[in-house]
Write a structure and sequence with these properties.
The protein is mostly helical. The chain is built from three helices and no strands. The chain has one domain.
């Protein structure tokens, strides 16, 4: 993995985590937390979406949308676990 791809992955994770925090109100974890939520959300979506036959597209915008949807799913799961 090159430095450029690592920076792009961190940027996409940060944007996706931030967007997911806006969508799922009340869940903001700061810059580092948002990056982690976005990256884990992208990984989660990468596991779930191919099984469902769901494809968003390619490129940076597609990656951000993909990671954001996964991060929203992750935040909703965190919300369910914290309530119980």
């Amino acid at each position: 993995m090159t430095l450029e791809s690592l920076l792009i992955m961190l940027l996409i994770g940060a944007v996706a985590g931030w967007l997911a925090g806006l969508i799922v109100k009340g869940y903001g974890y700061g810059l580092v937390g948002n990056i982690v939520i976005g990256i884990v959300g992208a990984f989660l979506a990468g596991l779930i979406f191919p099984e469902l036959g769901f494809s968003i597209g390619s490129g940076i915008a597609g990656a951000i949308i993909h990671a954001t949807i996964g991060a929203v799913i992750l935040l909703l799961l965190i919300r369910l676990v914290k309530r119980n």
